[in-house]
Write a structure and sequence with these properties.
- The protein has a five-stranded mixed sheet.
- By secondary structure, the protein is of the alpha+beta class.
- The two termini are about 25 Å apart.
- It has two domains: about 120 residues, Beta Polymerase, domain 2 (2-Layer Sandwich); about 90 residues, no CATH class.
- The mean pLDDT is about 90.
- Helix 6 packs antiparallel against helix 7 and helix 7 runs antiparallel to helix 8.
- The relative contact order is 0.14.
Length: about 220
């Protein structure tokens, strides 16, 4: 962990294939963290930035405000942080955020997931790639689960199937799974959308962000 963030860290979670359960023995460990900005970054002209730390482990750190902004946009990678089941380091502030994670769920998340899936799908049309094929199927199952339950799941019941596409006999598995799954998602997409709010709860999310930032400033006696 970066020493300059030690007193400002909100959380660190496991990300990527090891979160999804689609990893191999040789898979990297990827982590994502969220941290409080410095007072001058929050109140002054400076702005905190997303940064990577590869000295101890591959970790990407997001300023809290940026994290909220990306969650409200339904960014799939950032939603993975919010809904991660593999929390490496937590805090009372992070507990408050994850207890309010429903504020960030909306139709925008479904659209973002579908858009991400479609980008991988376009890549497959040029050249079959095992990793992209498994990502297409993982994202389709994620969309299906979110649409059917109204909940975002980072580790899916189909993780072994997704893993077999990635490392086993991917061409055969992909052909067996993808067409019917894609058709199901496409045919039910309007229903999936109806399960979610049109927009995230901007007002309550902003209120939570302000409360957390004010608490941090008071802790610093500013």
């Amino acid at each position: 962990m970066r020493e300059d963030l030690r007193d400002r860290l909100v959380c660190i979670v496991l990300a990527g294939s090891r979160l999804y359960g689609t990893d191999s023995d040789s898979s990297d460990y990827d982590y994502r963290g969220v941290y409080f900005e410095k007072p001058e970054e929050l109140l002054g002209l400076q702005r905190a930035v997303t940064s990577k730390d590869k000295e101890e482990r591959d970790t990407t750190y997001y300023p809290l405000r940026k994290f909220f902004e990306l969650c409200l946009k339904g960014n799939p990678n950032i939603m993975d942080i919010l809904f991660s089941t593999a929390i490496i380091q937590s805090s009372s502030e992070w507990e408050r955020i994850i207890n309010a994670k429903e504020l960030f769920l909306s139709k925008m998340v479904l659209h973002s997931l579908y858009g991400c899936m479609h980008e991988h799908e376009k890549g497959l049309q040029k050249e079959f790639n095992y990793k992209k094929a498994s990502e297409v199927v993982r994202l389709l199952f994620t969309i299906k689960k979110l649409g059917e339950t109204g909940q975002l799941h980072t580790t899916l019941p189909q993780k072994d199937l997704i893993k077999s596409i990635k490392y086993g006999d991917p061409a055969r598995e992909f052909v067996n799974v993808y067409p019917a799954l894609k058709m199901y998602v496409r045919d039910n997409f309007d229903y999936f959308l109806s399960m979610l709010p049109d927009e995230p709860d901007y007002e309550k999310a902003e209120q939570l962000l302000v409360e957390l930032e004010m608490k941090q400033l008071k802790k610093l006696r500013l």
